[in-house]
Each structure stands twice: as structure tokens, then as C-alpha cells.
Amino acid sequence: MIENKKFNISELVSNYGCFDLQFRKDTRHKRTGSPTYYRWNTQFVITSPKEKIELLNKIGNELKCGKTNISKDQARFSVQKIDDIKEKIIPYFRKNQLSGKKKGDFNLWQKAVEIIYLNKGKSLLNWKRNEFLQLLEIHKSAIKYKEKPRQSKWIEDATNLSKTLKS
């Protein structure tokens, strides 16, 4: 983490942050028939060694949203609520520019957030096909900005689901 420098969230995020877009599959095993649900999910994350948790708490206080926790040797600050992302995180980084790859990643991610926000509360089956396809394209395009891109488990399911949506 950055030591002995002025507290600068944009600089920290450019180095240690993540703008995450995922297509998720959730199976409700406790419900009759174990129904499966699919959804798009966004989150904003900053990680650090657990000794730096106070810095992450300071970021949460500054942004007025998110949660900080520790898992093993890592502290993690994350914002997952779509309203907080739309109303606090995106305006913050529009005002406080990021640099390098993180700037390109943010620009794509904020487009995805807009689409997900517009469809908040709707079943995926009621989404416009072109918006769903835009998210697939954003997800694919964002890989070039990721330091350690992970294989997306459910993207094939998302692609198949997109074929059933109305234009």
C-alpha cells in the first residue's frame, strides 16, 4: 500500500481497485425444486493487507457507502448496492479521474452499471435483448484492463439466455 503520501482514493484505486462486472448463477437449494436464478452483478472493490484496514475504513467514510471486512490476511472494501454505485461511486470517479488501465476499465464498467440500474427489479427475461448483449460485450471488452482476468463461469449461460430475449 502507499505510505507517507496524501490520502488519494483515485490513486489507491488505480493501483489496488477493481470495477467488477459478473454474470451470476444462484441456486436456491432450500426451496422446493431448487430453482436457479441468473443475474448481472456489479461491485467496486479495493483490497489491501489486513494491517491497512483503517485506510479502507477511511475510504468508506469518505465515499459514505460500502463495507470493509477481513478474510485471512486480506482486508477488503466493497460496494455492491447498485444505488450506492450509481449515486456515489460513479459520480466520485467522474469528478476524481483515474489513470492508466483503471480509467478504461471504469469507463466500460459505468456503462454496464447504467444498463443494470435501468433494469433494476426486472427479471432478466424482461430485459431488452440489445441491453443484455451490450453487457456481454462490455464484459468481454473489460478483460484487457484486468491484471488477473478470471474465467467467467456463467458467460456461456448468459449468451444462451440472450438468444431467448425479445428485441
From TrEMBL:
Gene3D superfamilies: Homing endonucleases (3.10.28.10). Pfam families: LAGLIDADG_1. This is Homing endonuclease LAGLIDADG domain-containing protein. InterPro entries: Homing_endonucl, LAGLIDADG_dom, LAGLIDADG_Endonuclease. Residues 17-113 form the Homing endonuclease LAGLIDADG domain. GO terms for molecular function: endonuclease activity.
